[in-house]
Amino acid sequence: MDKPFIVALDFASKEEVRTFLQPFSDTSLFLKVGMELYFQEGPAMIDELKQKGHHIFLDLKLHDIPHTVKQAMKGLAKLGVDLVNVHASGGSAMMFAAIEGLEEGTPHGMSRPRCIAVTQLTSTSERVLRDELLIDRPMKETVVHYATLAYRSGLDGVVCSAQEVPLLRASFGTSFITVTPGIRFAGDNADDQVRIVTPYEAKRLGTNYIVIGRSITKAHDPYVAYERLKREWDGGK
Ligand code: C5P
Predict the structure, then answer these.
(1) Local confidence band at 124 (pLDDT 50, 70, 90 cut-offs)
(2) Does an H or E element contain 5, and which?
(3) Cα–Cα nearest to 90, from 73, 66, 74
(4) Is 85 in contact with 110 (CB distance < 8 Å)?
(5) In the predicted model, what is the mean pLDDT of residues 199-222?
(6) Other C-beta atoms within 10 Å of 63: how many?
């Protein structure tokens, strides 16, 4: 997990993934495989990406009873991925079980995948929080509460917006990792993301990892866009 850039492989098939990765044949990337791709291509896709030297964030956002999550995590640990996640709203027993499953499933001599929590989905508005989920507290307070629960349950970090990073950093220190989506280059289309920041702003706010999808995957030249990402992260234009 050395690189701070996680490229979201939001594709529906291995063919699309292969086409996208062609220009990166000499580069080891940190790739996010989500439900769309994993449910189509399964563990074979993970194997293929690992064999090419890439690091993997398997973004399946587990949320079930503790025993089920533990057993599922055992299986995911065997895939040798670097990072997995759960919904913090599954509660502390579920999160403890997730870590237990990862520890038990990690093959001897390998390090266990790190596990982070989703606090509230960025697609959830204050209105949905209040009227549908019946959570009567402001979003920010809810996010910090869920992050605290994740921290106390032994998770390694959270998915959060860049704006939340300084607050979480102040509460949990530097070893609790933050993974931040909603990244756009200056002047890019926001698409469906509401609160976006540039790579440099995200770094300035202190995040550990940024997740970037369409700004790279839909770029005219993804390789050039990735090089731009690296430059912008370092403060260049
Ligand atoms: O294309 P874009 O850069 O918006 O992609 C962001 C990626 O991060 C997508 O895979 C999206 O599902 C994911 N994500 C997000 N917001 C969250 C959690 C994950 O945008 N809170």
Answers:
(1) confident
(2) strand 5-8
(3) 66
(4) no
(5) 96
(6) 16
Q: CA 49, CA 207: separation in Å to the nearest integer?
A: 25
Ligand 1 atom with the smallest distance to the CA of 212 is 3
Judged against a pLDDT cut of 80, whether residue 23 lies above it is answered with yes
Count of H-run helices and E-run strands, the chain: 11, 8
Are 60 and 93 in contact, with CB atoms under 8 Å apart? no
Closest by CA to 119, choosing from 152, 83, 157, is: 157
Q: What is the secondary structure of 99-111 as a DSSP string?
A: HHHHHHHSPTTSP
Of ligand 1's atoms, which has the minimum distance to the CA of residue 122? 21
**Strand 30-34 to 55-62 pairing:** parallel
Pocket around ligand 1 at a 6 A CB cut-off: 8, 10, 34, 121-122, 159, 181-183, 191, 193, 211-215
Which residues are tagged catalytic?
Answer: 59, 61, 64
* Average confidence (pLDDT) over 80-100: 98
- Going from the N-terminus, what domains does the chain have, and what CATH number goes with each? 5-233 (3.20.20.70)
Mean pLDDT of all residues in 29-48: 98
Q: What is the pLDDT of residues 40-58, one digit of tens each?
A: 999 999 999 999 999 999 9
Tens-place pLDDT, residues 179-194: 999 999 988 877 777 7
Question: How many angstroms is it from 109 CA to the middle of ligand 1?
Answer: 32
